[in-house]
Amino acid sequence: MSNPIRKLVGQTAIYGLPSILGRLLNYLLVPLHTYYFAQTADYGVISELYAWVAFLIVLLTFGMETAFFRFLQNEADKEKAYGASFWSVVGVNALFYLFLLYFNNDIASALLFEGHNEYVVLLGTIVMIDAITALPLARLRAEEKAVRFATIQMTSIVLNIVLNVIAMVFFFSAERPEEGILFILLANLISSLAKPLLLYDSIFNVVFVKDWGLYKRMWRYAIPLVIAGFAGIINETFDRILIKHLLYDPNIPDSLNYAESQVGIYSACYKLAMLVTIILQAYRYAAEPFFFKQMQNQDRNIVYVRVMNIFIAMVCAVFLVVGLNLDIFKHFIQKEAYWEGLKVVPILLLANVCLGIYYNQSIWYKLSGKTQYGAYITIFGALLTIAINVYYIPQYQYMASAWATLIVYATQMTLSYFLGQRHYPIPYNLKKFFLYLASSLLLFWIGKQIHFEKALINHLLHNLLVLIFVGFAFVMEKSNLKPSAAH
């Protein structure tokens, strides 16, 4: 029998290909954007706009991706589960778009984008398209059509990259940076439109479902996930919004420019911590349907524990790769004006390790149907995020946001573990967790303490430390990837 963990690793690689390559290609946009947007404040505007995208996508997908996977296991008529989830998302987005078209001027003013309501309309249109296409893409994942899924995602990503390069290289003018922001949004809009065109068969042939009982059951399951997701996005992106609004003082000249500049510096450096998130996103695409399919497996807890062990080793390795090679990665940010924020990267890398572990643990409340606990945990995290940022940003600027991110994710990870052990116990190997985390932190500390005059020697030493950790983790986990492993 095939090892389910090997299958998960393979599907993570396939599903993650567009995510990993897309994020890596987006890394190429960081030097592109930071080169042409010489003013850190202009890059701050782009960063804040995309922080709002993260909020809206959670709201507008309405938790229906996870609900679809859950109800797909129970419903005899699989088309009904798909149709109910799809039309739920369409309904939510229709209401949102009507609201957006009517109030876009007021929204732009409230967000301090006075006179640029076109930013709001374009951004809302992009998110609406992405939200509606999320369900057809989820269906491909459920049907394990990984190649088609990857092809569609990559087409959209590559199109976005190409259009960005063309717009910035050939049409951007430093005298009109607001046009550059519009170019970026228009490139995103066109690339998003590619997805419904490539998913036409899954969109235009959806049967309208009249089973209102099914809608109610799916909504009841999904609403706590929406709340949890919305609160989770507060933890992930709200700091960029708060930095701008808390540092802006209308009574101080050029205050808005300074606030947006701080957002730009923090956001550019935050990108360097996103490699952990890239791995996490790739993993989540494959893991969610995988975990639900293991529900009928008597050895499911053994599988969950082994997956967690491998996952922790993987994200700790990424923490070391980026953290010990910042002198290389920083050159993705073209202007040295942004480099002053590099000190936040190790903190944010460690925060994202905690976030990844939390996401991996969160399967307990999804499998048990107790999704309200996910909402409780992330609402608490969101309140803690807001409290720390509001209190400390005026004094410590974006450093407060970095530490808040780590504190909140570590707290959520801990709460989820203890609640999970009470309501849906999975015997995770805590010894391995602390062993991997402590050894990666120790190797990171050693790498930072030893410094040679020649940069090459430093790089060799740092990457030797990474290889030591990878070799150690491989020896510890190789038995879990053998074909003969329990299933």
Polypeptide structure, described:
This protein is an all-alpha fold. It has one domain. Helices cover 81% and strands 0% of the residues. The protein has helices at residues 4-36, 40-61, 64-72, 78-110, 117-142, 146-171, 177-198, 200-203, 212-247, 255-270, 274-293, 300-323, 326-329, 345-361, 363-368, 371-396, 398-423, 430-449, 455-477. The chain is globular, with a radius of gyration of 22 Å.
Secondary structure layout plus pairing:
Blueprint: H1 4-36, H2 40-61, H3 64-72, H4 78-110, H5 117-142, H6 146-171, H7 177-198, H8 200-203, H9 212-247, H10 255-270, H11 274-293, H12 300-323, H13 326-329, H14 345-361, H15 363-368, H16 371-396, H17 398-423, H18 430-449, H19 455-477
The gross shape turns out to be globular
**Count of helix runs:** 19
- Gyration radius, rounded: 22 Å
Give the tally of structural domains.
1
Helix content: over 70%
β-strand number: 0
Content-based structural category = mainly alpha
The end-to-end distance, rounded to whole angstroms, is 8 Å
The biggest sheet, with number of strands, parallel, antiparallel or mixed sense and barrel status, is: none
Search tags:
single chain; 487 residues; mainly alpha; 19 helices; globular; disordered C terminus
Short summary of the structure?
With 487 residues, this protein is mainly α. It has helices spanning 4-36, 40-61, 64-72, 78-110, 117-142, 146-171, 177-198, 200-203, 212-247, 255-270, 274-293, 300-323, 326-329, 345-361, 363-368, 371-396, 398-423, 430-449, 455-477.
